[in-house]
Amino acid sequence: MSKSGDALAILKLYELRRDSKMRAARQWYTNVFDPQSAQDLIALFASGERASAYYRMVTSYWDTAAALVLNGGIDKKMFLDANTEHVLIYAKIADFLPEFRELTRESDYLINLEYLVRSLPDAEEKIAHRKQLGKLWIKAARPA
Description:
Number of domains: 1
Structural class: mainly alpha
Radius of gyration: 15 Å
Number of strands: 0
Largest sheet: none
Helix content: over 70%
Shape: globular
Distance between the termini: 49 Å
Number of helices: 9
């Protein structure tokens, strides 16, 4: 794809993130969602509640975006220069994905997101930092 095509694809991804339902889902993921185990993820899926839809919306969006990058549909450097949210999305669930995949027998669940984030220079440091930020944002969003 040409650089202008990559830029248009990135802008389209940004436009999709601005959708009101997606904004609500992203706000929930950032400020409310605080899983403590793989079982929390499984319970979320089973709940059928709005939180389940929000979780699936946000994670599938970023896994799809990562798949586009990893398969050459969007230039990786340009994508990474324009986006960082996917690191937080992955960081919140990274510790639970191996067990979740085992329990659900979905070995490739969110694998594109994982591969993209883990390909970053200093990935472990960035993941750890985003985990800390996520905890701070959740604490700040809770009523005093």
